[in-house]
Amino acid sequence: MTDYVRYYNLEEYLCSEVSRRFYAHGSIGAFDFFSIIIWKANRAKTQIARKLRKMDKAQRADLEAIVRDLTRNLSEARSAEERLRILMEHWRFALPMASAILTVLWPDEFTVYDVRVCEQLKDFHRLGSVARFDVVWVGYGQYRDAVRAAVPGELSLRDKDRYLWAKSSASQLERDIATGFVRVNSRIDR
After folding, report:
1. Which position among 63, 135, 151, 158 has the lowest Cβ density within 10 Å, counted as fewest Cβ atoms?
2. How many CB atoms lie within 10 A of CB 149?
3. Confidence grade of residue 57 (pLDDT, cut at 50, 70, 90)
């Protein structure tokens, strides 16, 4: 990674270069993996690094080796369900982060589970707190289908996700401007 101009637009970097490397090599390294983590929730990177070391069966400290094995396992998984199960059950990722990782690597099969998108769909808010994987998998499939159905046209799943997220963000900004950026009903800013 030497062209920092390309890295500046992190989502574009992830969707083009990281995705391409993953398909070429069957895995990605720690830099690319943690770039996905930062894209979804920068505040979580240290906690996730600790979690990876703790959950690693070999108890390694080397994040590069752990991430290579983790992403190789995802690459070798036979189905989308198995990929999500690996992240959620073995590595204990929550649905928002697991879906972000898988969205970068399989953008036609996965979409990011996000509170802003749930807001636009007016549903699925509790899916992220469900404990049983079989229930999460069914609910996530319904969520993904709802994302596809909510945005008209022939956009990709990834672009439909972007559309809904941006619509939520723009709506929040409009509400904030209308209230002078004063919290209404003690609502906590996101």
Report:
1. 135
2. 10
3. very high
pLDDT of residue 131: 95
Average pLDDT over residues 144-155: 96
What residue has token string 């030497």? 2
Q: Token pair 């439909």 is at which residue?
A: 160
DSSP per-residue letters across 163-178: HHHHHHHHHHHHHHHH
The domain locations on the chain are: 1-105, 111-190
Query: Residue 49 belongs to what H/E stretch?
Result: helix 45-55
Mean pLDDT computed over 97-112: 98
CB count within 10 Å of CB 147 equals: 23
In this predicted structure, the answer to whether residue 174 has a pLDDT above a threshold of 60 is yes
* pLDDT score, position 88: 98
Helix (H, G, I), strand (E, B) or coil at 39: helix
Q: What angle do CA 162, 38, 110 make, to 5 degrees?
A: 40
According to the model, what pLDDT value does residue 3 have? 85
Number of alpha helices (DSSP H) and beta strands (DSSP E) in the chain:
11, 0
C-alpha–C-alpha distance, residues 52 and 60, integer Å = 9
